[in-house]
Amino acid sequence: MKFSPLSVVSLGFVTVSVGAFVPKSQNVVDTKLYSGVERNENFAKLSGGYLFPEIGRRRNAYLEDNPEMADKIISLGIGDTTKPIPEHILSGLVEGAKKLGTTEGYSGYGAEQGQALLREKIAKVLYNDLIDPSEVFVSDGAKCDIMRVQQVFGSKVTSAVQDPSYPVYVDTSVMMGQTGSQDESTMQYDNIVYMPCTPENGFFPDYASLPRADVVYLCSPNNPTGAAATKEQLTEIVNICKERGSILVFDAAYAPFIRSEGVPKSIFEIEGAKDVAMEVNSFSKYAGFTGVRLGWTVVPSNLKFKDGSLVRDDFNRVMTTAFNGASNIVQSGGLACLDPEGQKEISNLIDYYLENAKILRETMEGLGFTVHGGTDAPYVFVELSESMGGSWDAFSMILEKCQVVTIPGAGFGPGGEGFLRLSAFAPRDSVIEACKRLSEELK
Ligand code: MLT
């Protein structure tokens, strides 16, 4: 039986066939209006758009109705860096670009896994040689790598996520077809293990008390709660993953914000982690590279599937098939980030954002709110009072009354309801002005 465009004339339930036989039972469409391709059913399961564009949409809708407020808007919403790239790191990017203008320096395609020197430097400078350069895959960012991780695992695995959590873990699991649909009353997807993270458990999940999942996503310092997991907590989750045969995907994109003594910056500081964990990471928040795009994923050679095959080999297969390597210019910037001067510049940038976080935290505490995070992370997670309604209501109220964009906790999953996330990635004067407006409105 053949489906011919010639034959596609749909009159609802009646099919008029021209030139080829089309069975009545076949779904026939008017190809002047539609293609004949079924929508991927997994996308239909997603509830609404991705969180951050949705925030942007609401902000723009507000500005359309109130164009006179355009200059007043302050964003404490998406975690997007605002400080310029410092001198030494910038010189790396410039050098990378300049090389392309010379015969000797020109390079075309590079290794899909990243330049050997950058992989070595990441292993040495950021991991103190706890990992091997061959285990590092340089990429265009942690978010993109999370999707690649999902492609490696495929559609049959069960995933566990912290609740609340960075929405990419859940949304990509849905896109991959790992889940059922979303239950409208709980706002949870079927076949995802939601691991409650609350002030009572220090925002660290009790995975042992929950059903087993194949893949466990854990982010520390955490987005959105700002909690940084202790060595004991990470040891516990590594051990339980080992016991249950789960693979831990550790998101360390905010690692350099850790300033508390003894708090691990990488999962590989935990004994046994190389048998159970992989780590995604990125220069975005380290060095102001949100627009530059450079990240990496560490897949240890010890990490194996049930059949003994290496997870690293499959990750490599995804990278070599569907990625041509990070931009050579940008990798040159990455190398500069890892020089001692670059490391110092990163530390200064982070000091600046942590000072912003302190101002935000103290302002909200001064207004009587219970506040979490903001000490080892750039996010301040504020517990809302019941009188403020749901977190989307609080978001709208603050946008309308203060012209300050925040992120409602519910955007990070049902466990985020009742909280509001404030990002410290804003210019200092904007943070101070936002705090002034919040103080006037919320006092
Ligand atoms: C955020 O939570 O604001 C994110 O960091 C944005 C992103 O990196 O995708």
Report what the structure shows.
Keywords: Aminotransferase, Pyridoxal phosphate, Signal, Transferase. Belongs to the class-I pyridoxal-phosphate-dependent aminotransferase family. LL-diaminopimelate aminotransferase subfamily. One of its GO terms (biological process) is systemic acquired resistance, salicylic acid mediated signaling pathway. By secondary structure, this protein is α/β, with parallel strands linked by helices. It has two domains: 135 residues, Aspartate Aminotransferase, domain 1, CATH 3.90.1150; 233 residues, Aspartate Aminotransferase, domain 2. It is built from 14 helices and 17 strands. The strands form five sheets. Strands 4-12-11-10-9-5-8 form a seven-stranded mixed sheet, with helices on both faces. The protein has a four-stranded antiparallel sheet with strand order 13-14-17-16. A hairpin with a 4-residue loop joins strand 6 and strand 7. Helix 3 packs antiparallel against helix 11 and helix 5 packs parallel to helix 6. It is globular and about 55 Å long. The site of D-malate (MLT) has 6 residues, from loops. D-malate (MLT) binds next to loops.
What distinguishing features does this structure have?
globular; single chain; Aspartate Aminotransferase, domain 2; binds D-malate; disordered N terminus; 4-stranded antiparallel beta sheet; 14 helices; 443 residues; 7-stranded mixed beta sheet; Aspartate Aminotransferase, domain 1; 2 domains; alpha/beta
